[in-house]
Amino acid sequence: MARKFIRTICALLGTALALAALALGLLIYCNGPPDKPPVIPPDDPTLRLDESGAGTLSIRLELRPGESVRSAGQRLHSAGIIRNRYFWDLLSYVDKGVLKAGTYRLSLPATQMEIRSLLVSGKQLLVRLTVPEGVTLKKTAQILAAAGICEEADFLDAAADTETLAGYRVPGTTLEGYLYPDTYLFPESYPAALVVKTMADTFFKRLAEIQGDVEGSALTLSPTELNNRVIMASIVEREYRVDEEAPLMAGVFYNRLRIGMALQSCATVEYVITEIQGRPHPERLFDRDTEIRNPYNTYMVPGLPPGPISAPGAVALHAAFNPVPSDYLYFRLVNPDEGRHYFSQTLDDHIRAGVLYVKARNKAGGH
Fold first, then answer.
1. Beta sheet of 47-49, edge-to-edge order
2. Among 120-124, 261-265, 270-274, where is mean pLDDT lowest?
3. Collapsing DSSP states into helix, strand and coil, what is residue 129?
4. CA-to-CA distance for 118 and 91, rounded, in angstroms?
5. Which of 328, 306, 172, 331 is nearest to 242 (CA)?
6. Residue 266 and residue 278: Cα distance in Å, rounded?
């Protein structure tokens, strides 16, 4: 009787082990990648081959905000990326981690557990892009839109949000000039408000590094005083070509402000033409351009323009806060190849430098 009982127990254990092995094998099989390569639906923009995945099969998957776990599993199964959608549901039942919306790069072949772990981690595909120094808010919006980060209109709206402006104590109507030009890593389809926050935070961080904790620095200026410095930096950014000349240019502009002389910055006229009037960037300016009636035209209106005209980088910001003292009131480009200017105290000297430059250029050209 005892032997019969033992044999029954052994048989049951054997059956249980066999079933367990079968179940384990089935789970391993279902978890594994499909036997055939995936077939991406041509009508699904959220699932596509990733052209940047050189050497391996790489898929870009976009999880839409609010998309259910079952919907994601069905799409992955239909495209042949996972072997069994019911195992996907089982994983989701066992692991309560939430799938995070965003764009991901799936390196295939991959197990379902690996894919799910990636989508729960939120480690999205990041786009590397550079916002150059001296660009305007509108051009920054175009750069971001072209990279697939956010829509132009959404970015411009976020940069003009009154609560955001108040949070950064910016007295203008937009964050023009306060979004630092730099290289960034953003996920595709990233909220415009977060893009703006990242760039504005970077601006104030870099500004603090440039100025340091010294009396009279950007950290202790009133919003209006800081805004004036940023406006000046944005003008210098569009005027200088050689780094060491930027502080000297800032000094010239401050000298003009001090005596009530018009700034006469060509960069502000170009801003009126391209950003306000929406015309192409001019190859050169004529008298009719400098006579445009607009608050940003510093040929017609004394003092600083109403707001920044570009995104200043570190060199221009440093120059605006640390101008080189001089008696100069004028500067003129005399070496286009090297980007160097001639600085002078008087208008006569300024005009004379222009005449000498034209003669030298004609002589070099064989005229």
1. 47-49, 57-63, 102-108
2. 120-124
3. strand
4. 13
5. 331
6. 17
Label residues 275-304 b or e (16+ Cβ within 10 Å = b).
beeeeeeeeeeeeebbeeebebbbbbbeeb
Measured CA to CA, the distance from residue 233 to residue 218 in angstroms comes to 13
Q: Write out pLDDT tens, residues 283-309.
A: 888 889 999 999 999 999 999 999 999
C-beta contacts of 197-200 below 8 A and 24+ residues apart: 197/164, 199/131, 200/164, 200/168, 200/175
Least confident among 91-100, 146-155, 354-363: 354-363
Name all contacts of 295-301 with Cβ < 8 Å and 24+ positions apart: 296/268, 296/271, 296/272, 297/268, 297/269, 297/272, 298/235, 298/262, 298/263, 298/264, 298/265, 298/268, 298/269, 299/262, 299/264, 299/268, 299/269, 300/262, 301/262
Average pLDDT over residues 50-66: 73
Structure tokens at 161: 């949000």
What does the chain come to in residues? 367
Dist CA 139 CA 199 (whole Å): 14
Angstrom distance (rounded) from CA 204 to CA 177: 11
Q: What angle do CA 192, 239, 198 make, to 5 degrees?
A: 20
* Interatomic CA distance for residues 9 and 12, integer angstroms: 5
Report the C-alpha gap between 177 and 251 in whole angstroms.
20
Tokens matching residue 250: 């800032």
DSSP 31-73: HSPPSS-----TT-TTEEE-TT-TTSEEEEEEEPTT--HHHHH
pLDDT at 357: 46
Whether residue 182 contacts residue 130, with contact meaning beta carbons closer than 8 Å, is answered with yes
Q: How far, CA to CA in Å, does 119 sit from each of 72, 92, 122, 123, 124?
A: 10, 12, 6, 7, 8
Apex 239 CA angle, 268 and 277, nearest 5: 25
